[in-house]
């Protein structure tokens, strides 16, 4: 069988796009069809029929219709892999077909007047009876006479699409009046704002699609925790975890004048921490999984001195993944903890970890960062208002560059901005890029910024710390608690919130942040589907 997908693969870089690589054609022959609404450089609908284990495809600028009086231009494009049937998401800008895609309609179809669809298409005419949710009845695709139409560019052919006068025909029917996905109920705008699914093209098709919506912990698990006395076994996320010293205070009471005085005044116990961690773990996990995790441990609580714990302890449960760093020097940690499931974070909290610092690279490629990190590090004299000025200047610069990024408060005094990047960059690449951006922003407000390395020489000014972009340098992870009174949290923000007069770097604690999550969702989620190339700037 010829490789129908050769053109499809040639046009795409699967390290950069979430689209399926389509390694194989489907062994058994099915009869699915799909129509995707695709906002690329221009809006169009992609009409695809399953033929010989691939999707034969046309791009229809004005979309298919039930209106029998309308003839639509349909550009015959390359065959797509069968995995594309359920592809809904965001193709990064700059990549082939960059834009957002929804599954506008899907169902089954049958060829009419032929049992050899591929030959019928080669001859230039396909009659298809479709059984979709929106599209029903007989569609006809006919290749245009080369004399009648100018030949289009490249390998694409101009065809014509029409709907027959049959029982399903509806005059005046307009696809734009039916804008939602039949898979997720979402519009293209909604998918763009929060891509529902990630597509891992390096995995087999049946494992490739990963829901980005976290599974919530049910209340029974929290009730079970409250019933354990001082210590015991907690069944959580399908694991039996030994939990200890549940009534020990791990965070002092929040200060009266602190930004986190909104929580109640009591100190925070380990039991309360474990309940928070179990609730937030499904939300935080996508930023941690597949990465070595540096744990900031405070076994005697945030009021005492903490230390970095990087090694996977021998007493860790067997299911907790470890990773051997091939570059570890003598005396350095060799085996790191990797939190690949929510229960791993609960385990870490019971182990006294009051902060999660994920590596910026995955264990699969430790020298390739996933994010360009912008760390706005306030000096002693930097006011919160100064820091917001710096954050907003970065916002403007990133918008100008067309880069997808989001800010978060650290839970202490700072703000960070995370910029997801495609595979293949080195830490030196991202460091230089962030440095260039920092210099550009710094020129606008030289009175706020110091470029000195030593704290003493900074004269209390802020530092735009691009040096965080280095292997095994870590920033606090999204949704991690911080070891400070009241248990503040590092919270992802939308860009608009930088203009909110009530914003504070330590505004939310483990007692208040879940309400915010419920109301606002996770502003970082969009980053998971937005790996991008870093544009050059001058
Ligand atoms: Mn398309």
Structure description:
The protein is an alpha+beta fold and 538 residues long. It has two domains: 6-211, no CATH class; 219-527, DNA primase, PRIM domain (Alpha-Beta Complex), CATH 3.90.920.10. It is built from eleven helices and 24 strands. It has helices spanning 6-10, 117-123, 188-193, 205-208, 219-227, 270-284, 342-350, 384-401, 427-444, 513-520, 525-528; strands spanning 32-39, 43-51, 54-60, 71-81, 89-91, 99-112, 125-132, 136-143, 157-163, 197-199, 209-211, 232-236, 239-243, 249-251, 268-269, 292-297, 307-309, 321-324, 335-338, 353-358, 371-377, 406-409, 415-420, 463-464. The strands form six sheets. Strands 1-2-3-4-9-8-7-6 form an eight-stranded antiparallel barrel. Strands 16, 17, 18, 19 and 20 form a five-stranded antiparallel β-sheet that branches. A four-stranded antiparallel β-sheet has the order 22-23-21-24. Helix 6 (270-284) packs antiparallel against helix 7 and helix 8 (384-401) packs across helix 9 (427-444). The protein is elongated. The two termini are 50 Å apart. Residues 38, 40, 44, 46, 59, 97 line the site of manganese (II) ion. Manganese (II) ion (MN) is lined by residues 38, 40, 44, 46, 59, 97.
